[in-house]
Amino acid sequence: MSTTATISPALAEARAAALALLERPLLEIVFEAATVHRAHHDPSVVQCAQLLSIKTGGCPEDCGYCSQSAHHSTGLVKEKLLDTCDVVNSAKRALDAGADRFCMGAAWREVKSGEDFDRVLEMVSEVKGLGLEVCATLGMVDEAHARKLQDAGLDYYNHNLDTSREHYEAVISTRGYDDRLETLDSVRRAGLSVCSGGILGMGESVEDRAAFLAELASLDPAPESVPINVLVAVDGTPMEETEPLPWDDVVRVVAAARILMPKAAVRLSAGRREMSEEAQALAFLAGANSVFVGDALLTTPNPEPATDAALFKTLGLTPKANAAARAQTAG
Ligand code: SAM
Ligand code: DTB
Ligand code: SF4
Q1: For the chain, is the Cβ count within 10 Å smaller at the N or the C terminus?
Q2: In whole angstroms, what is the distance from residue 265 CA to residue 284 CA?
Q3: Is the pLDDT of residue 324 over 80?
Q4: H or E element that contains 217
Q5: Which residues, in sequence order, are CB contacts of 97 under 8 Å at separation 6+?
Q6: Cα gap 138→106, rounded to integer Å
Q7: Which of 298, 299, 300, 302 to mutate to test the pocket of ligand 2 (most atoms within 8 A of CB)?
Q8: Can you tell me the mean pLDDT for 16-39?
Q9: What's the CA gap between 320 and 47, in Å, rounded?
């Protein structure tokens, strides 16, 4: 953590508590998190979200980790907003493959009124009509636009705090931490469920991780969904040479997130392809109960569906959609 920001006594206390958790012996924190997890969730069920990049590349923001920033030369081909029918077809395939949520991502700085936003509203209502939960991640949003998304049928809005307030400025210069918090507030006021998490392995300290978790857990109410991404080091970004994170650091953060936000869905998100099956198993034991499925994230690969199916079988995990269908047949 580079600078000391002015933070409230309550947040300082929350940071200290999160740090104490992260510093506990690994098996101790995993055991406690597993206990909390079992008190609030069915530990055999995994929520499965499928991502689609509906507008790729050329983003004016300079997020140091991102393949889609116009500030980096990653070789990514920039694309216009997809047609609604292509998005709906992709959502149908996700539904058939067993996903319960469809998440549409756009490389936008912020949501603005216009033809493109109207098309996104159409996408949301059509995907919702298929019987999927719908999530969108479109950059900063104000309450009026968030309400329109909610009216169209959106369930979740994803907007990540990414890291601690102090480390944020080492990662992104084109917007500030308070912009992120303001969007989360608009999303909440519009009646949408909040999906917010971050990225591990961007050169942050353990104190930064504690501050990031404390910030999320201090949102009132806490996010319903907390994606824990591990940096996918993309060639051409300022983070291309970043050393991979030790696996136990990921498990510790998942466990702390579970203890601090008992009711949330904690998603083991980007970076799962680089994690061993054993490390993923420990993360599921420590309370991860959500993943991205399908062979791609937004612009980078995800584990193959067959690989995930085999892992779930080994661990005795059931995708949420299958569990729901089973419960309906039984009832
Ligand atoms: N432009 C929107 C925004 O920034 O909110 C939405 C799309 S953005 C790609 C969504 C999230 O993906 C980011 O907040 C970040 O947490 C995650 N992400 C992007 N690139 C990543 C990478 N290389 N590794 C891990 N996570 C990444
Ligand atoms: C989130 O926390 N992770 C997802 C989703 N929200 C939008 C995105 C991960 C992106 C990984 C890099 C890529 O594929 O471009
Ligand atoms: Fe743009 Fe989002 Fe990538 Fe940042 S993370 S460059 S805002 S697409």
Answers
A1: C
A2: 11
A3: no
A4: helix 206-218
A5: 50, 293, 294, 305
A6: 5
A7: 298
A8: 98
A9: 5
Calpha distance 279→89 (Å, rounded) = 34
What is the CB neighbour count within 10 angstroms for residue 73? 10
Q: ∠43-258-267 over CA atoms, to 5°? A: 75
Mutation choice for ligand 1 from 72, 199, 204, CB with most ligand atoms inside 8 A:
199
Q: What are the chain's domains?
A: 4-330 (3.20.20.70)
Structure token digits, residue 123: 């996408």
Can you tell me the mean pLDDT for 63-90? 95
* Residue with token string 């992709």: 90
| pLDDT at res. 330 | 73
Tell if the pTM clears 0.85, that is, is over it.
yes
188: closest CA among 214, 157, 226? 157
Residue 52: helix, strand or coil by DSSP? Answer: strand
Listed residue (120, 124, 144) closest to 132, CA to CA: 124
